[in-house]
Amino acid sequence: MAKVKQKLRYFDFYLFIPYLLLCIVGIVMVYSASSINLSYAGMKTDLYLYRQMAYVILGLVCFTLAMLIKLKKLTSKKFIICGFYILAFLLLYAKFMTRAVNGANGWIDLKLFSLQPSELCKLYLVLFLAQLLSRREQAAAQNTLQATSRRPWLLVYFLLFLILMEPDLGGFAINFMIVAIMYLASQATRHSSKRAFLYLTGFLSVVMVFVFGLRFWNPLAGTKYNYMYSRLMAFYNPFKVAASSGHQLINSYYAISNGGLFGLGLGNSIQKRGYLPEAYTDFIMAIISEELGVIGVSVVLILISWLTLRIFLIGIRSRDVYETFVCYGIGTFFAVETFFNLGAVTGLLPITGVTFPFVSYGGSSMLVLSITLGIVMNISIRQRRLRAADKNH
């Protein structure tokens, strides 16, 4: 109990308040975006409201537990090995033992919510890579880098491969970016960021050329993965495929256009009335834009930007290399997920089904994001306690 009081003494409200506000916005907007269609279907209009509230409460519990846990437990060899086997099993189970949802076998139905193993991978890879890269830094400092093994990277590649096999392109892209940015950060600390940046730029260039080439050649034609090519075509010209894969993006455009500066008012969205499918999930920002306008969207973006920058700042200030890499990884997680979601809603990126942090409906996303933020809070509290001890001395 004394330890809990001590942690609360150094509690970082600059981190917690934006998180709580985003969760509240999510609860309100999930209800607004889902209630009318539930009414049309003859179901209870508050079904997703209560579910989202339950996810937020569970998220707060997970946040608290992550805040109180000893960080050393997350660096143990047992945690890393067990975590890998559990995630590999869950990804394989989702791929071969579950029914496909929107073309991907990426969810495991737990009744209360659907578990998405690729979401857990984001947290695991942050913790695993932070340990791997911090040890690499220590080895470099002691001039023993040649003795370090590259075999642990095979575990990272294997998990990324399993996510791609589902296929969960959104989950793969975010997990890959977490790995790439954390590696880039480690290279920067060793004064070789230019080489790492060139590698990353080269890889992304090859990907962009390949994606552009798919506009003229469809290698997925006639296969069960043809839906991915359809999404790409919707990204290039949604109005050309308005009756099929472009339908969702076009209605997102209409929602954004309808909202203007101040919006139509809370609950007054037109596109949520059967036009924009599952608007309470990855396209909830389109409904926020329509109902609350540019002002409402700006408030949400300010909150998530503050949260993300705060996480990076905590990482920069940390005296511990492991904690720095953890914060960099989690900050990348938040930033990339936000970018992918907004890119899909505005047509700047292909639709990948990535949710908006803390606002979109979903149990797996809420719990994993809350745990990651609880870990950052844990690090922030430790920093504040150390700074206070330095001042006293």
UniProtKB/TrEMBL annotation:
GO terms for biological process: cell division; peptidoglycan biosynthetic process; regulation of cell shape. InterPro entries: Cell_cycle_FtsW-rel_CS, FtsW/RodA. The chain crosses the membrane at residues 12-33, 53-71, 78-96, 154-184, 196-217, 292-313, 325-352, 358-381. It holds the Pfam family FTSW_RODA_SPOVE. It comes from the Bacteria. GO terms for molecular function: lipid-linked peptidoglycan transporter activity; peptidoglycan glycosyltransferase activity. It is a multi-pass membrane protein. It catalyses: [GlcNAc-(1->4)-Mur2Ac(oyl-L-Ala-gamma-D-Glu-L-Lys-D-Ala-D-Ala)](n)-di-trans,octa-cis-undecaprenyl diphosphate + beta-D-GlcNAc-(1->4)-Mur2Ac(oyl-L-Ala-gamma-D-Glu-L-Lys-D-Ala-D-Ala)-di-trans,octa-cis-undecaprenyl diphosphate = [GlcNAc-(1->4)-Mur2Ac(oyl-L-Ala-gamma-D-Glu-L-Lys-D-Ala-D-Ala)](n+1)-di-trans,octa-cis-undecaprenyl diphosphate + di-trans,octa-cis-undecaprenyl diphosphate + H(+). The keyword Transmembrane helix applies. Coiled coil: none annotated. It is found in: Membrane. It is an enzyme of class 2 (transferase). The keyword Transmembrane applies. Its EC number is 2.4.99.28. GO terms for cellular component: cell division site; plasma membrane. Keywords: Cell cycle, Cell division, Cell shape, Glycosyltransferase, Membrane, Peptidoglycan synthesis, Transferase, Transmembrane, Transmembrane helix. PANTHER family: CELL CYCLE PROTEIN, PEPTIDOGLYCAN GLYCOSYLTRANSFERASE FTSW-RELATED. Peptidoglycan polymerase that is essential for cell division. Belongs to the SEDS family. FtsW subfamily. This is Probable peptidoglycan glycosyltransferase FtsW.
